[in-house]
Every structure is written in C-alpha cells, then in structure tokens.
Amino acid sequence: MDINPESQSTEEPGETRRASGVDLQARREQRRETRRNQTYKAFLRNLMVIGSMNEEDAERAAISVLCVLEQRLFGEEAAHLEAQLPGKLQELLIRCERHMGKPATKFGKDGFIQMVAQDLDVEPLEAERKIRAVFSAVRDQVSEGEIDDVIGQLPSDLRELWHLTM
Q1: Largest CA distance in the chain
Q2: Do the beta carbons of residue 17 and residue 23 sit within 8 Å?
Q3: What is the pLDDT of residue 165?
Q4: pLDDT at residue number 166
Q5: pTM above the 0.85 mark?
Q6: In the 3-class helix/strand/coil scheme, how is the chain assigned residue by residue?
Q7: Angle between helix 124-141 and helix 55-72 axes, rounded to 10 deg
Q8: Tens-digit pLDDT profile for residues 112-147
Q9: Among candidates 97, 94, 60, which has minimal Cα distance to 78?
Q10: How far is the C-alpha of 67 from the C-alpha of 94, rounded, in Å?
Q11: Distance between CA 69 and CA 132 in Å, rounded?
C-alpha cells in the first residue's frame, strides 16, 4: 500500500484534476497560446490579401513598418498601439532592436518610406505599397480611437499613408 500523500487521489472516476488546477491550468494555457496563434495568423492573412503578399513577406513587412512607426511615436503611444496588436506580433516588435531604448525621432513620409525600403531591400514605391497595406491591416485590428491617437502624432505627409486606400 502506497502511503505517499502526493500519490493519493481525491478525484472521482471520470473527473479531471481540476481540484489541483494542474490540468485545468495547462488547458487554459494551451487555449491561450492557440488563440494567440489564431489572432496572429488572421492578422497576417488579412495583410496577405490587402498587400498581395505571401506569408513571409507579410510578416517582414508588418515588423518593418511597425518598428519604423514606433521610432516615430512619442510618449506611451507605441505601447498603447502594441497593446491592441496580436500578442505574437507584439513579441516580434519587442525584439526589434532599432527602437529599443532610443527616443522617438521626427521624420516625414520620405524618411519613413526610405527606412522601410532599406529594411526590406525594396524600391521606395514597393515600400510605400507595403506600408499602406500594413497600415490598412492595423486599422482592421486596432480601435479607431487608437488610430486617431497615432495619426495625431504624425506630420500631414505621413498621415496620408494611413488615409489613402490601396
């Protein structure tokens, strides 16, 4: 007979280990991770359709454009924007070393396009197309109030990238 208290079960037949929370917690974590992946994949699929890109290009474009945008936002605005993006995309942006620990800087549309073009190794016209696609996909993901806050920090020439459709 085993007298180890950890090996004794108080479960009724057919019950899971909900009393201890182990299985329930593991299931919750699995559901949370599944949801994070689904939300991220939905964002990418939307961007792929909007920008006529494959998944790899869509992911690279999203990271590049959002990283450059975060370099332009002052105060807590970058964090507020990130909070409404899919969790998996937030993690990718956190790893973006270009904006970590650096203060926001002022640049306009041409500078924005040039940074994205260099990062993605594409021509400026292609970079602008990708920027517009990412901004459109972000608009579908983020509250209108947050978009207004972001746009409010941008110069008029850079704002037009948010307003014009593909």
Answers
A1: 78
A2: yes
A3: 46
A4: 41
A5: no
A6: CCCCHHHCCCCCCCCCCCCCCHHHHHHHHHHHHHHHHHHHHHHHHHHHHHHCCCHHHHHHHHHHHHHHHHHHCCCCHHHHHHHCCCHHHHHHHHCCCCCCCCCCCCCCHHHHHHHHHHHHCCCHHHHHHHHHHHHHHHHHHCCHHHHHHHHHCCCHHHHHHHHCCC
A7: 80
A8: 999 999 999 999 999 999 999 999 999 998 999 999
A9: 94
A10: 9
A11: 12
Token reading at 82: 């990130």
Domains observed in the chain: 20-163 (1.10.490.110)
Distance CA(31)–CA(25), nearest Å, equals 10
The rounded distance, in Å, linking the Cα atoms of 53 and 134 is 11
Block residue for tokens 């909900």: 18
Question: Do 132 and 161 meet the contact criterion of CB atoms below 8 Å apart?
Answer: yes
- 70-120 pLDDT tens trace: 888 888 888 899 889 888 888 877 756 665 666 778 899 999 999 999 999
